[in-house]
Amino acid sequence: MTHILLVEDDPAIAMSLKVTCKREGWQITWLDNASSVLPMLHSEQAQTLSAIILDVGLPDGDGLNLCQQIRHTPDIKGLKDIPVVFLTARSDEEDRILGLEMGGDDYCAKPFSPRELVARLKAIWRREQLPAQQSSIMRSATSLASVIHQTEQTNNTTASHTAMSTHSSQILTFEYHSGIWRYNPLNYSLVWQDQKLDLSNTERKLLLTLLQAPNQVFSRQQLLSSVSDYPDHRLARTIDSHIKSIRKQLAGVNPSIDIIHTHRGLGYALCPA
Description:
Order of helices and strands: EHEHEEEHEHEHHEEEEEHHHEE
CATH topology of the largest domain: Arc Repressor Mutant, subunit A
Shape: globular
Strand order of the largest sheet: 2-1-3-6-7
Number of domains: 2
Largest sheet: 5 strands, parallel
Helix content: 40-55%
Number of strands: 14
C-alpha cells in the first residue's frame, strides 16, 4: 500500500489531505511538528514510505532545513531519495527555488487543491519509475550498440551504448571515452567510473536526460520539463544550480574530466568523448 508521511500543523489542511489520500487507497501518517519527523524516519514504519508531504512553515522548525536533514542524514536508510513535496504559504519565487535546491521534488503553494497535490505525487512516481522513457532508452541503446559494433570493426570506434539485463532488473549502461555509466532503475543508483554518485532525485533525472542524448544541447526549459510535469519557466534558472551540483559530484570522481558543457544563451550538453 502507498504510504505517505504528512507533516502539517494546520488540522484543517491535514484532514482535507487525509480524506483525499484515503480515497486513493493510500495510508497516511500525520505529524503536526518538525521534532517528530526524524524519530519517525528512524523507525521501521518509515521503511514503507512512498513520499513525504512537508509544510515549510512548522511551529517548531523550518521545513526546508528538515528536508535537507532528510537528504543528508546517512543513518536514515533508504529514504535519501524519497520524493518530498513542499506545502508553502510563501509565494515568493526565491523561496520556491530554495525549496527545490534544498532537495524538494515539487511544491504546492497554499491555498491549493488536494487533488492537485495527489496528481503531483503521481507525476513524481511516474518519473521515478521511468517506464516509457526506460523502454525507449533500451530500444535506442540496443539499436545504437549494434550500429556502433559494426562501425568498430571498420574504423576502431571506441564509443558505444550498451544495455544489459541482470537477474532482478535491467541495468542501463552507457559507455564513453570518459568512462562507463550504469543506472539501476530498481534502487535509482547511478554509477560512473565504478563510483556511485550522491545525487538528488532532480540531479539524477537531469543527468540521465543528458546521458540519453550525448552532444545534444538542451535548453534550461527543456531540462526543467524533463524533471517536472509542471514546469514553470520562472524556475528554469534552478537548472544552473543543479548542474553546478552535478559537476561537483563528477569532479569528486574524476577532476580531470569536464563533460557537461555550457552553451551560452542555449543551455547544456553532455559531451562524453
